[in-house]
């Protein structure tokens, strides 16, 4: 591609010549064809750009850059899974949401045969590892986290794990999604996190004593969830009045492009993704602009698959993965890796 400062010196011949009429006509036809193609692609470009600005650059390339080789251990029936890169600059503890598990954060592999690798969870881990962050995940004892004895158990596990892996002098950060965010907001009063990220969670700040040395807090939330957004706003103000540094990232809905599911769900190819989106459009699950009309959980898309005899690769194993991406596109309440660039830029700024 030519830069703005490229200069070409063209020597003009003193000869003059007449251009044949058929050449002029042919040139006009080619120019008109190019104009039609350009105008026809503008509509798709607008929609594509509305999605692309959400996606961290090179995030899909992380799968080839970061080898998923987690270590898995069980303590009293509780799964503890982690991965530590060479020379880690920080550690990220992640608390899953209700119904989640530590198994969601890595793909199935030789060191974790039970792992399921949900699209957003595993991308957050991949992004962290690519940034030379070690990652630690712990499964809650029940479907959701409790705030009594379980909190004390998790405190002990984190401290034990840090000593075991000689990471005492490495900065510790926390990220909690949904119920995991509420749990993390309380856990941060007992574990010395350098900074924490509360994702689709407002925290428990109006129900707890906030110490003066409480860590800086980043709220990553979806404004479509109006009630939660209002609580986030109140808690931002509450923390700021206590002199605690805060930041907010808003995550918006976006249109479901034909290739989106293939790009996000491992094992789902582009033709299948395109057929799925076409089916959703025919069933009016998405509107004329490609936006989900309802959250993926509230959309009867699985029933539509059965009625249409639509067969997914790997059977029902990809259903949870697809639904997560439908939830994300609707932009109401779902874990998201799309803002990883901003999240890790904020975390990295507090490492030194």
Question: How is this structure best described in words?
Answer:
Strands 1-2-4-3-5-6-7-8 form an 8-stranded mixed beta sheet, with helices on both faces. Mean pLDDT is 86; it is low at 1-26 and 35-59. The protein contains 11 helices and 8 strands. It has 352 residues and is an alpha/beta fold. It has helices at 21-52, 62-65, 119-130, 149-164, 179-187, 226-241, 260-264, 270-282, 301-307, 319-330, 340-348; strands at 71-75, 78-83, 90-95, 133-138, 172-177, 195-199, 217-221, 246-250.
Strand and helix map with partners:
Elements lengths: L20 H32 L9 H4 L5 E5 L2 E6 L6 E6 L23 H12 L2 E6 L10 H16 L7 E6 L1 H9 L7 E5 L17 E5 L4 H16 L4 E5 L9 H5 L5 H13 L18 H7 L11 H12 L9 H9 L4
Parallel strand pairs: 3-4, 3-5, 5-6, 6-7, 7-8
Antiparallel strand pairs: 1-2, 2-4
Features:
352 residues, alpha/beta, 11 helices, 38% helix, globular, disordered N terminus
Short description:
The chain has helices at 21-52, 62-65, 119-130, 149-164, 179-187, 226-241, 260-264, 270-282, 301-307, 319-330, 340-348; strands at 71-75, 78-83, 90-95, 133-138, 172-177, 195-199, 217-221, 246-250. The protein has 352 residues and is α/β, with parallel strands linked by helices.
């Amino acid at each position: 591609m030519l830069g703005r400062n490229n200069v070409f010196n063209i020597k003009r011949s003193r000869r003059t010549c007449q251009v044949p009429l058929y050449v002029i006509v042919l040139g006009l036809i080619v120019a008109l064809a190019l104009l039609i193609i350009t105008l026809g692609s503008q509509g798709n470009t607008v929609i594509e750009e509305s999605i692309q600005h959400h996606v961290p650059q090179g995030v899909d390339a992380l799968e080839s850059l970061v080898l998923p080789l987690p270590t898995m251990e069980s303590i009293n029936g509780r799964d503890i899974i982690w991965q530590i890169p060479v020379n880690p600059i920080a550690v990220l503890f992640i608390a899953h949401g209700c119904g989640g598990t530590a198994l969601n954060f890595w793909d199935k592999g030789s060191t974790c045969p039970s792992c399921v690798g949900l699209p957003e969870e595993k991308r957050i881990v991949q992004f962290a590892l690519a940034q030379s962050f070690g990652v630690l995940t712990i499964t809650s004892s029940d479907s959701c986290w409790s705030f009594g004895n379980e909190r004390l158990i998790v405190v002990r596990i984190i401290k034990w794990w840090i000593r075991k892996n000689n990471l005492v002098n490495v900065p510790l950060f926390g990220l909690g999604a949904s119920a995991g965010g509420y749990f993390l907001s309380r856990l941060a009063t007992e574990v010395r996190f350098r900074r924490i990220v509360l994702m689709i969670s407002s925290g428990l700040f109006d129900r707890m004593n906030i110490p003066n040395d409480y860590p800086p807090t980043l709220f990553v939330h979806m404004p479509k969830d109006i009630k939660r957004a209002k609580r986030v706003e109140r808690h931002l103000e509450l923390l700021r009045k206590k002199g605690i540094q805060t930041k907010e990232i808003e995550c918006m809905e976006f249109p479901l492009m034909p290739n989106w599911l293939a790009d996000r769900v491992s094992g789902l190819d582009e033709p299948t993704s395109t057929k799925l989106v076409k089916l959703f459009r025919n069933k009016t699950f998405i509107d004329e602009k490609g936006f989900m009309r309802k959250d993926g959980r509230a959309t009867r898309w699985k029933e539509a698959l059965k009625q249409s005899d639509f067969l997914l690769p790997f059977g029902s194993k990809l259903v949870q993965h697809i639904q997560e991406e439908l939830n994300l596109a609707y932009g109401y309440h779902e874990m998201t890796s799309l803002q990883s660039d901003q999240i890790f830029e904020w975390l990295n700024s507090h490492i030194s």
